[in-house]
Write a structure and sequence with these properties.
This protein is α/β, with parallel strands linked by helices. It has 2 domains: 141 residues, Rossmann fold; 64 residues, DNA polymerase, domain 1, CATH 1.10.150.240. 46% of the residues lie in helices and 16% in strands. The strands form 2 sheets. The chain has a 6-stranded parallel β-sheet with strand order 5-4-1-6-7-8, sandwiched between helices. A two-stranded antiparallel sheet has the order 2-3. Helix 8 links the parallel strand 6 and strand 7. It starts with a strand and ends with a helix.
Length: 215
């Protein structure tokens, strides 16, 4: 029987907020807006870069204006190679153990694919992920279930034999929509109440607890 674990990226595998904040603030300063705090960025992360940029700007923009600011941010972020990003404590052990237990591993993130590839290459390339899917024109953002089902189809894993681990409301909703076993990560950027309100039933307070929940 094939089995899989699909992970969110930001706030689940990696603490990326310091680098996201740096590059959002570079963009904001360039276009003459006020910069944002770490707590604000944590609230804004999770629904894709376009939404992140729009919320960070905090003013109504035309599509062309938002496109311009989004391109600037994505270019700066990808070029930075994320020097402040790091794995959450315990993630390395979790990934290696799950792989040894025969799980196929995948990443599904609303981060743009190009930036995702850069971050994964820098921090996660040694863990044997079977699929890495970021946001692109052909991939709908979470909580849409399409990308999750495509990953499972490619890996030849039934939804009932798959776990979805993420720290955001969109991850909880994606897991519910796709019929996977969801685990809400409390070490990320949302609190338990927020995730519970999104429909989460199973929680892990630290990465190492995943090894008890995913057998």
């Amino acid at each position: 029987m094939n089995k899989a674990v699909i992970f969110d990226l930001d706030g689940t595998l990696l603490d990326t907020v310091p680098d996201i904040m740096d590059n959002i603030n570079i963009m904001l300063e360039h276009f003459g807006y006020k910069t944002r705090s770490e707590n604000e960025i944590k609230r804004f992360v999770g629904c894709g870069a376009r939404n992140l940029v729009a919320l960070s700007v905090g003013k109504e923009l035309t599509k062309e204006e938002l496109d311009e600011r989004l391109i600037f941010y994505n270019t700066a972020y990808t070029a930075s190679v994320s020097p402040k990003t790091h794995l959450f404590d315990g993630i390395e052990v979790v990934l290696k153990t799950l792989k040894s237990r025969g799980y196929k591993l995948a990443i599904l993130t609303n981060k743009p694919q190009e930036t995702t590839n850069t971050v994964v290459r820098e921090y996660l390339q040694d863990f044997g992920f079977d699929m890495i899917v970021g946001q692109s024109g052909s991939v709908k953002c979470k909580p849409d279930k399409t990308a999750t089902l495509k990953i499972l189809d490619s890996l030849k894993v039934e939804a009932k034999n798959a776990f979805f681990v993420g720290d955001g409301e969109t991850d909880v909703e994606t897991s519910i929509n796709a019929g996977t076993c969801g685990i809400a990560a409390l070490w990320g950027y949302r609190d338990k109440e927020q995730l519970k309100n999104a429909g989460a039933k199973t929680f892990a307070t630290a990465p190492i607890e995943l090894l008890e929940l995913i057998k």
